[in-house]
Write a structure and sequence with these properties.
Elements: H1 2-7, H2 27-56, H3 64-98, H4 101-121, H5 136-152, H6 203-219
Length: 223
């Protein structure tokens, strides 16, 4: 889209009249251009934190040869990033300023499309790691929902005070209202069963929620 906004004339604003009168672009032209920029930012935000982790998952750390290859992968990864930055800063920027903005955007667009094709072509060979643990954000949400229900309902079920809780240094005494929903699950698992997990929570869930709550109270206003 960014390449099209620079290459297609109907997406350009009207030409300037003389040196001072430059008509504004149409609302559609403005929308198309800024949507392109926001899509780039959205794609980068989803791409950068995921691809490195996905690449690391392709190597078995228990295998000596693959463990060595994993280290080599990150070396080549950062080499590619730095090389791409150098080329885009030196060559692509020169093309944009002196040749054409459409060509300047078209070159990285073509490279991106080629890289995407190579990535998709290897789909059948990738390793996929299946996570067995529960979503940690779901466990945190259960603590605060259970605490809210505790404040609204009288008969909430078994509550805390168990000796099995791991004490959280510094923040444990600050958020005692979360202790009311603490219970050790009878199954002996880390989390309570799905039927009661939104009414009572395990000591580990409460401890994690206190940690997040305490950290946000310390650094939230500064952020």
């Amino acid at each position: 889209m960014l390449t099209l906004s620079a290459a297609l004339t109907f997406l350009w604003p009207p030409p300037c009249v003389g040196q001072t009168i430059c008509p504004s672009p149409s609302p559609f032209q403005m929308f198309f251009f800024f949507a392109s920029l926001y899509l780039v930012a959205l794609a980068q935000g989803g791409h950068k934190p995921c691809v490195q982790a996905f690449g690391a998952d392709q190597f078995d750390v228990q295998d000596p040869a693959e463990r060595k290859s994993k280290s080599s992968f990150f070396n080549w990864w950062y080499f590619g990033i730095c090389s791409g930055t150098m080329v885009s800063s030196a060559i692509v920027s020169y093309i944009q300023d002196n040749v054409s903005w459409g060509l300047g955007f078209g070159i990285p667009c073509s490279v991106m499309m080629a890289g995407f094709v190579v990535f998709v072509a290897g789909t059948r060979t990738y390793r996929y790691i299946s996570l067995q643990e529960k979503n940690p954000f779901l466990g945190l949400a259960q603590v605060f929902v259970a605490a809210a229900r505790q404040s609204l309902e009288k008969d909430i079920g078994p509550t805390g005070g168990n000796a099995g809780e791991v004490q959280l240094r510094g923040s444990n005494n600050r958020f005692k209202f979360l202790d009311r929903v603490r219970v050790i699950p009878s199954e002996g698992t880390e989390y309570c069963s799905e039927k009661i997990s939104w009414r009572v929570c395990t000591p580990s869930q409460v401890k994690d929620a206190k940690t997040v709550h305490y950290s946000s109270s310390l650094y939230g206003p500064h952020v």
